[in-house]
Design goal:
Blueprint lengths: L6 E9 L2 E6 L9 E2 L2 E2 L8 E6 L2 E11 L16 E12 L5 E2 L10 E4 L2 H8 L6 E7 L6 E5 H6 L2 E4 L6 H15 L5 E5 L12 E4 L16 H9 L9 H16 L23 H13 L1 E2 L14 E3 L10 E2 L10 E2 L6 H12 L4 H4 L13 H10 L4 E5 L5 H21 L12 E5 L2 H4 L8 H12 L5 E7 L7 H5 L3 E4 L5 H10 L5 H4 L9 E6 L6 E4 L14 H6 L10 H9 L3
Parallel strand pairs: 12-21, 12-22, 13-19, 13-20, 14-19, 20-21
Antiparallel strand pairs: 1-2, 1-9, 2-7, 3-4, 5-6, 5-9, 6-7, 7-8, 10-11, 10-24, 15-18, 16-17, 22-23, 23-24
The protein binds adenosine-5'-triphosphate and magnesium ion (MG).
Adenosine-5'-triphosphate (ATP) binds next to helix 3.
Amino acid sequence: MKNDITYLGSIIRVDSETIEVEVSNDIPSAAPIINGRLYKIGQIGTFVKIPIGNIIIYGIVSSVSNTPSKLNENIRYDIGSRYLTVQLVGEKIGDSEFEKGIGTYPTINDEVHLVIEKDLYDIYGNKDEGSIEIGKHSSSENLSVYANLHKLVLRHSAILGSTGSGKSNTTVSILKAILNDYEGSRVILVDPHGEYSTAFPHAKVFKIKDDTNPLFIPFWLMTFDELAYFLVGAKPSDDQRPEHRLFRELITKFKKENFKLNDGDIDQNFIAADSPIPFNIRKIWDEMNWWLNATFSRPNKDDQTRETAKLLQESDFENLIGAKFEPYTMGASEPYKSKHQDFYNYEKKLLSRIKDSRYDFLFNPGDYKDIDSNKDLSNLLNEWIGSENKLAILDLSNVPFEVLDITIGLITRFVYDSMFWGRSETYTGKNRCLLLAFEEAHTYLNKNENNCYSKEAVEKIFKEGRKFGLGALVISQRPSEISETILAQVGTFIALRLTNSGDQSVVKKSAPDNLNSLINLLPALRTGEAIIVGEAIKIPSRVRIALNNPRPTSSDPELVEGWSRKHPYNIENYKTVIKRIREQKF
Ligand SMILES: Nc1ncnc2c1ncn2[C@@H]1O[C@H](COP(=O)(O)OP(=O)(O)OP(=O)(O)O)[C@@H](O)[C@H]1O
Ligand SMILES: [Mg+2]
């Protein structure tokens, strides 16, 4: 064996999963050519193998030195000797497949050999059933690297990398591989910058104010606390205030009245302020407005009822026009001013919220607006995840920043609930799993923010989603800002170039395989090159991901080109921009 051209040296130290190898002085070349390929000895991140009988143990070179890590004063070291530290990663017994983890440990003086291309094919094998191709191995452009789809999706994964490192392109590669290979696959992609529709011409893209597929997130999916916060700025601690209590009662009453629903009647006893039951928010405003402005034939609050009101004209709540009453007189004669002034603050705030067209996708949600509208939540689910289109892109680029968090929170919670309560149905839950992908995750899954609706909902998927067939993929350029609960549950890391040391150490800490040697390569990776570690991959690998066409629209602006030209002045120029700011529509 020592005469083999692949012979590298022998083991001088074994320390659980790490071994130290003394490279032999006799090896013919520091860069042997084997089967026409050049192999460089002692390259960090490359594989070595240790054959022991019919077992082959594989390891990854993590450091190279000209002195051993633990010096022994009694030994004279040959100058020029090289010492490799190698992390053991897995083994192959006889003709069986390569497996992660070490069952048999090597010992002092065992031979260590270079891994040549044929060995790599032995490790990576052919495409198994239930896997997708992620890319090609960095050291061999013909060698495909596959990921186990079940683990990639249901044990959750993360695509991390500095800006411009190729995250969006990697996302497209992975989703395309899933959608092309698996006819019944289902994916929802949360796309805050609206960059993915160009890359997936066959996907169903939902977007605010879109003519074909408008995005609606009905406000009545919110719990009472969420609704109270977004409509009138109230906090749960306002619970003691009379207007808050009345507001809760009013919403509960409206929801209870609407128990006859398209998706089936609901037992009224089960309906509470938090139940996702449609009701007309304009009627709530109308109710508040009516009692505030009404005049009555009686002065006492208790006698001021609908019957004693001095009504001149009914309201038109759909158009937010309040009812008209006889004007009250100043003296002690009728009509009397209303004593029902509890909603004085809430009414104005509510009105300005529902009038603001930027929030129409929430508070004026088209066919989901009210009990009389023809669509219910089953239609929403059917549109998102029930149709022939395997991929639904939720383009949130027009969602105002201040409601982005609650919007993603509502989407995530609703999808989670549908998987939880549908877990045993043939067409969803465990029988038809779903992948939810979150782009720009650091903006709304931030570990430093308390009270994040989206973070709470997404963390639940990471903790429990697997049991109901719901997997998640987070994509982010700032892993150090992402919730630790989420990172701790990520099974597979696809780490592209990461320059920030804080971000690198998060990957180092969270990555399931203890392979710092590979993670140390992160700042030096080329665009589109990734280190993949974790459950879905047979062996931690450095992978090149193909550049997709068509691409997401995330390419950089043409700075030099734009600044090199002269731009003519035109007084009309910014009118379109201002119109778009006002209408929030392209
Ligand atoms: N696999 C690849 N091979 C070659 N070039 C690539 C590859 N992936 C990405 N690129 C190039 O890098 C550019 C940026 O890629 P991409 O938009 O995927 O990066 P990103 O990490 O998502 O960036 P951002 O953080 O800005 O969203 C692309 O426009 C493309 O030109
Ligand atoms: Mg991107």
